[in-house]
Amino acid sequence: xxxxxxxxxxxxxxxxxxxxxxxxxxxxxxxxxxxxxxxxxxxxxxxxxxxxxxxxxxxxxxxxxxxxxxxxxxxxxxxxxxxxxxxxxxxxxxxxxxxxxxxxxxxxxxxxxxxxxxxxxxxxxxxxxxxxxxxxxxxxxxxxxxxxxxxxxxxxxxxxxxxxxxxxxxxxxxxxxxxxxxxxxxxxxxxxxxxxxxxxxxxxxxxxxxxxxxxxxxxxxxxxxxxxxxxxxxxxxxxxxxxxxxxxxxxxxxxx
Length: 256
Description:
Layout: H1 3-22, H2 28-32, E1 47-54, H3 61-72, H4 74-77, E2 81-89, E3 95-96, E4 102-103, E5 107-108, E6 117-120, H5 129-132, H6 134-146, E7 149-153, H7 157-162, E8 170-171, H8 178-184, E9 189-190, E10 196-199, E11 202-205, H9 213-223, H10 225-234, E12 246-248
Parallel strand pairs: 1-2, 1-6, 2-5, 6-7, 7-11, 8-9, 10-12
Antiparallel strand pairs: 3-4, 10-11
Helix pairs in contact: 3-9, 9-10
């Protein structure tokens, strides 16, 4: 390659890099605040809820990432009243999602802090191996009891039901697995016509592309419609609580 061609090629790379920089403005949410890490101390006087996502190998991307994204964005609405998100696994070591992405958890079962909002995403083993994992089920049982809210996405309802927490309650799960859910857990009133079911502190949902919805529901319930609408606008998601099939079980029908 002669000197002129080398110079032209280098100039082309530089120009392309500058073009990319010019076409990649900071997102509005990201420009207003930095995302806190799981170890970041909260601002003085802040009201911070923790959201712990408990995962096992082969967790599904959408069921983990969609609600994580919604909750994590809460700090951009109010840096003194938000949800701090983190991922927990049995040993805290990197895991591979069902779709092949490597995820490094923030904590192990042993080191995880208290969880206010427990999120149980669906995994490849939610209906099988996870239910036989004694360490996972023991941690889940403790976390379920202590959490202010428990949210399941897709087949995450299976391990939650296996703790006994849904006995006598109403719930839903991934549409294709509702019959299996009903058969395995006959003490649960399984709904086939709802995308979200809220019974006490338990929020169960269908998952898939709808995995954003239960997180938006909880954000709106905790912080109000304006807060949820701003996050939905930032994520370009058409969130409208009135348009989603949601069953909110009256508190007099079941007990916490």
